[in-house]
Predict the structure.
Amino acid sequence: MKVWRMRDLGLQAAQTIAAAKDPLRKLQELAQNFPSRATRLSSLKVKEEYRTGAATALRSRALGYGTVLKPGTLFLNGLPRSLAGPIFNVFDILKALRGEIRTLQRLAHLPAPPALQQQLIGMAATAPLLAHASEGQGRRGPPGQETRLDIYRGSKGALIYLNNLEKDAQYKRWPSSLRQLLFPSWQLQTIARNLYTLTLVLDLEDPNSWEALATLRRIYSRQFPVRFSVLLVSQACLARAEGKQGSLEAGGEEELFLAGVREVVEGEGKHREPATSEVVGMLFHHLRDEHGLEAATAFLFGLGVGGSWEVPAGAGAVGGERVPAELGTYADVVSAYSQAVAVVKKSWKGGAYAEEAWAALVAGKGGEGARLMHKLVAERGIPVGSVVLNGKLQVTLDLEEALMQMLGEEQQLLSQMVGAGTLKDSTKSVLGALLKGPGVMERYHPWMDEDLRREAPAVMWLGGGKGGRARELVERLDYLHPPGTRAEVKALTVVLQGDLGSTEGLASASALISFLRKGHWRSEEAAAVSKRKKEAPRCALVHTPAPTAADKGALLAHMTRVVSCRSEAGEEGEDALLQVLERLAIFLRAEEGEAAEVGERPSAYDRFLDVLKKESEAGGPEQGPEGSALLRTAEELREEATEGFRKASAQEQSRDSGSSPREGLGVQSADGGEEEGSLALVVNGRQVDLGGKALHPLDMEVILKLESQVFTLPLLALCNPRAPPDAEAAKASPATARRISDLVAMAHSFLNVYARHPRVDVEGHLRLLQDSPAESLLLDLQPLGSAGARVGQEDDPVLSNLSVTVLLDPLGEAAQRLAPILTTLRDHFHLPLRVLLAPHPELNEFPLKSYYRFALFPTRETHVLFQSLPPSLVLTTRVDTPEAWNVQTRQALQDLDNLKCEQGETGLVCGDREGSSHTSAELVLKNLLVSGQCFDAKLLEPVNGLQLVLVDGLEGAEGGEETAGRRQHHSDTLVMQNNAYFQLRADPGIWKVRLAEGRARELYEVVREDPMGRALVRVPEQELVVAKRDFTNALETLRVQKQAGKEDIPLLDEINQDEAEGGKEQRESKTWSTLSNLWAGRKAEVEGKPTGEGSGEEDETVHVFSLATGHLYERMLKIMMLSVSKRTSVPVKFWLLENFLSPAFKTAALAMAEHYNFQVEFITYKWPDWLRQQTEKQRIIWGYKILFLDVLFPLSVKKIIYVDADQVLRADLKELWDLDLKGRPYAYTPFCDSRNETLGFQFWRSGYWATHLQGRPYHISALYVVDLARFRLMGVGDKLRAVYDQLSRDPNSLANLDQDLPNYTQHMIPIFSLPQEWLWCETWCSDESKARAKTIDLCNSPLAKENKLHMARRVISGPLFNESWVELDEEVKALVG
C-alpha cells in the first residue's frame, strides 16, 4: 500500500467503529483481520469531526496527563492496567477486577447513600499525595508542601554553623542572584547565598560516624555551596535524660554529664578512659567562644585516633583522606584541641593550650552548649546518625550518597520557586522560606516518610473481609475528646491499642490524654500557625493485655469508659475528667512492683487519691483552683473506680467476646502477627509505627498533621454537608456528631486502603472532552441482555460503583487483544464501558501486519479459528503469551514458521491432508515461571551471581515424601545484575526458592522486613515460599544479606589480568576453586537423571548448544547432530532451545539420541519484559544465541560449544573442547578474508567498525566456545545485556545481533580468536582452504541467492568428506522419516 493511502487509516478505523451498530464487534473484526481489511478501509472519506476530534484528544492527553493516559490502557475505577507489550496478562485484569469488586462489596457496608460512595471512589484518584506521584514527581510534593523538619527555630546556642556563604570571604567572588538557578546546570550552582543548610547529627562514640565526618571534611574543603553544621551528642547521655537520671533543662548538665567528666579529668583516667561526644561538644563550643570558628572547625576535623588534620581555611584543601577508627581517650581529644589552636594561632605553645582544655573541662566551660545540643536533639526527636538538609531528614551515615541525591532535588525545587516568583533576591532567608507551610513539622517522627505511610498496615473499618467486626467496634468504642469539642464532627479517629498496663502503654496513654487536654484546639495561636483551625481528634484506649502481663491497664481502660460517659458535663468539668485520667496513668506508671490481684485493684485507685491529697496539702504541682477541681473530680469517681470496676471486670470475664478488638481493628504486631499485648496506634484504620517506644505528646501533633493532609477536609465536606463552610466549629448534638464522626472514620479507613495503589482521575479527563470535537470518539457502551435490552445496574450497589474506562488506538497492537476482553466484560460480566478512541492522526507505515486471535473463552470453546487467510502469502505463526507462561507446540503437521499453500495434483493444497484447506496446531502450557528480583537488603543492590535453586514446597510435608524425592531440585539459576532479575520454571503448586549449597549459603542469609519496615529479620527456614496458584504475572522479591563477619568476602572472586594471561592449569585451578565453592554439593538433575557433576563421565562429555526454527533448519540440525556424534570421540550432550522447535523434531531428536548414544536436553528461557524486545523471529533467535548464556544451562555445566544448525563437522569436537582460551570467557572464529570476490562486503574493514575495533578481528557467530565458568564469574552476561539494551534503542544498530554484540564489546569482554580452520564458509573462504576446514558452514552469499538444500548438496560432497550431505540426510530419514 502506498504511504499516502496509509495516512488516514487510523481515523478511518475510528470513524467506522464509532458508526457501527456494535462498535466492539467492529473493532475486533477490523483489528484482528486488518491486513485483509486495509484496502477497503483506505477508500473511506474521513469526516472533519473525527479528524478534529482526534487532534483534540491527542492534545488533551499530551498536555493534561503525560504518559499516564496512553493508548492501550484499561482503567478500573481509575486503576490503570496496561494492555500493551509482553507484560500483558488477561488474568491480571481479571484478578484486578475481582479485587475491585471485593473492595466495593466492603464499601457497600458503609452507612452512606450510593452517591457518597461514588464520591469516595472518585476521591481516591484526586488525592494530592497520589496525584503528584502518579505524574512522575516521585516523593516530592508541590513547592512549599513537602514534609520538612524545622530544627532551626529555637536552636540558638546549640547549632554552630561552620561557614556562611553570604558573609565569608572565600565566597565573595560568587554571584549572589538567585536568578542563576534558572540557568541549566548539571552540577550545583555556586551562588553566594545559603541555599542549602546541612546538619549532621553524630555520636562520635559510634565507629560508623567517622566515615560521615570524613566526607563532611572533604566536601567542606572543596567549597561545596552548602552551609554546614553539626550536632554532637551521646546516645548514652540522651538515654540518661530520658530515664530521669539528669535534666536537659538549664543547669541540668552538672548531673547529666559534667560531674562524670570532672571525675575523669581530675582522676587518673584521662589517659585511658575513652572520650565521649559530650566532651567533644564542650570543647567545640568553648573553642568557638574562646578562639573563634576557625579553631573550632580545625579541632572537629582533627579528631580521631590516627586521623590527620589541617586548618580548612579559604580554598586550601584539607590534607589526608584517611578515616579515623575511633575517638580515642580524653587525652587524644585534648591533643587535637591544642594542635588546632596552635596552628590557627601560629604558635608553638601547644602544651599551654592543652592545659587550657583540661581546665575548661573541669570548669564546665562549653557545657551549656553541649547541653543545648542534646536538648535540641531530644525535643525535636532527631535520630542520631542522620543528616538534615533544609529540613529534609534521612536516617543514614552514608553522607556522600544521600547528599548528592538530596542536593539535586533541592536545586530543582529552588529553581522552580525562583521561576514561580515565590523566591526572590529580596528573600531574607531561603531556609526560612522553605520552612513555611502545612508540611513543616516541629518534631521528627518516622511517619514523616511518605513511603512508610503509604506501605503501613491498614484495614478498612467496614464490615466483611479481614477485621470484619471493625465497623461494630468503631461504633461502640468509648472516645475521649478535647474539652469542649464533643459536639463537633471529628475527622480523625485515633485508637491506642495494646497492653495499657505496660510501661510503654501507660506512658503512651498519658501522652495521648495530655495531647487532648493541651492541644489548644481553638486558640488563635494554633490557627495562625496552621493557617486554619486544627482538626480535633477523638481517641479511644483499647486494653488487650499480653497473656503473661501484669494487668495494670484494666483499671485505666475502665476509667476511660467512665470518663467518656461522664464527659457530657461543661468544658471545665470535661477537662478535669481528662486530667484525672492523665494523672492516673502517670501514677500507675510510677508505682513500683506488679499490679495487685483483681480483687485488690481498687486499692490502686485509693493510693492514687492519697497521692493527690498529699500534693494538695503540700501545695504540689496541681495546687490552686485547678488542683482542687482535680481532687474533687477524682473523689467523685471513686465509686466507679472501685465497685463499678469490680462489677465490670466480672461481666467481662463471663462474656464470650469472640474475636478480639485487635483482630477486629486489623492491628499487626511488629513481626506481622496479631500478638496480644503489643502496642499499636491506629489512625483512621492505618497503623502508625511506634518504633517499639512510648508515644510522645509532640508525636501526636506530627502524626495527626500528616494524616489530615490528604482526605480530611474533603471528607468532612462530603460526610457533613450541612456544616457552614466558614464556621469555626460545625456544632451538632453529641449523638449526631458521633454518627457523622463514625462515618468519616470508616470512609477515611476505606480511602487509606483503596488509594494505596495510584489511581488516575480518568473520568475527570473525559469530562474535559465533553462539548469538544473529541466527544465523537467517546463511546458509552452499555451491557445488553439476552433480548438486546439494556441491563440495568441501579439495584446492584457494587456494579453501580464500578467504572471501566479504556483509552484505545483502534489500530494499535493492544486493540487486537482488547476487543475480545471488552466484549467479555460487557456481555458476560454486564459491565458498562466507556471507550475513548485515540487514533493516530497521521500514519506513515502500515500499523498492523498480523492476523490475530485472542484465546479468551467465556464459554466452553477451547480453540481459536483463523479464516479466509490469503493463500498467496507465506505466513508465520507466533504465540503471544503472558510473561509467566512457557507455552510450547504439542502437535502440528505443518511448518508453523512457513505456512503456505503447495501446488498439488488437484490444485492448491493448504491443509493437513490432500483436498483439505484446514490445518491445525495444538499448544500446551508446559510450566509457569517463578521470576523476581534478589537484592542485598542492606546495600539495596543486586546480588549478581548469587545461585538459587527451586525445590518442592511439599518437601518434608506429610504425604509429600514421594513428590519431594522426585522434584526436590526442580530448576536452578543465578541472579542477574540487570534489574536483580532471576527466573525459574515451576508447575502449579507450592515451591521454595533457596540459596544454593556452597558459597551462596556460606556467605548470605535470607531475610525479610518486618511489617513496619523498621528492621531486617532473619528467615529461620532460609527460603522464600512461592505459591503458583493462578496464572498471573507475580514478581517475587528475595531479600538477602551477608552473614555476620563475612561482609567483606566477595561472592565472585576477581580475576586479574595476570591470571587471564597465565597458564591453563593456573586459571582452571583459580576458576574451579571458586566454582567448586559456588556449587559445592550440587547434583543437577535432568528429567530425573543426575548429570554426575565431577564424575569422570561428565568431565568427558562435550556439551553442544544449538537452535533452529522451521522444518528446513530442523532438517539441517538433525544432520549437524549426526555429524557431531560421528566425528566426536567422547560422549556428546546436545542442549537445544525448545522455544521454536516443532513436536516432530523433538520426537526425532530423542529417537536419534537413543540410536546414536548421545544425550539431548531441551531448554527454554523466557525473554524478560524489562529487556528490550525484538519482534522479528530471526532477531529473537539471534538474541537467544548471545544474551542468556549464563542462565540457559544448569549451573553444573561448565562449558558449551555452540554450533549452527546448517553446519557439518569434519573434525573431533573434543579438540575444540580442550583448547586453551587464554583466560577469555568465549572464543569465536574470525571471518575469512581469503575470497577476494566478497571482500567488498566485509563492512568491518572500513568506516565506523574499523575505527571501533582498532585492529581487532571481526568474528563470525556460527561456531563459538563459551567457558561458562569464567563467563559467569566475570559477569559477562550482565555486561552483554546492558550494552544490548543501550544499543538496541536505535533500531538500525546491531544489524547482525548475535555477531555485532560480542564484536562490539571486545574492548571490555575479550574474545579468544579460534584458528581459521575451525570454520569454513564458501562465501568468505577460498576453495584452497577448504581441505583444512574442520567445520563447514552453509552461510548465505551476498553475490547470489541459492537454495539451502542445493548449496548443502553441492558444498558438502566429494573426497573431503566421509559422508556427503545427501548420505547423512538419507541416514537420518531412514531412522526417523
Notes: The chain has 48 helices and 41 strands. The radius of gyration is 38 Å. The chain has a mean pLDDT of 82. The longest helix spans residues 399-420.
